[in-house]
User: Which sequence fits this backbone?
């Protein structure tokens, strides 16, 4: 058989395959998307931290910090507990 009729050897598969949008080629071709996503992530994270730090002094019934309430208020999901009833 001639060499031009022989199919090429298959490439070995990499151990870890990244999604297409995580490759350096994609990131270098779409800098505005990378900037916007990074800006959005930093903005949301900073708003979460600022709101959570406003409620850092919340304590539970045993006198310790009540982290679930602080996290809930930081993410905007307020819990409304009522005594009694």
Assistant:
């Amino acid at each position: 058989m001639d060499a031009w009729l022989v199919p090429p050897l298959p490439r070995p598969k990499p151990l870890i395959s990244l999604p297409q949008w995580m490759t350096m080629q994609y990131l270098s071709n779409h800098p505005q998307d990378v900037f916007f996503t990074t800006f959005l992530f930093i903005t949301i994270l900073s708003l979460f931290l600022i709101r959570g730090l406003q409620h850092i002094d919340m304590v539970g019934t045993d006198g310790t910090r009540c982290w679930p309430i602080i996290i809930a208020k930081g993410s905007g999901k307020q819990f409304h507990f009522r005594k009694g009833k």
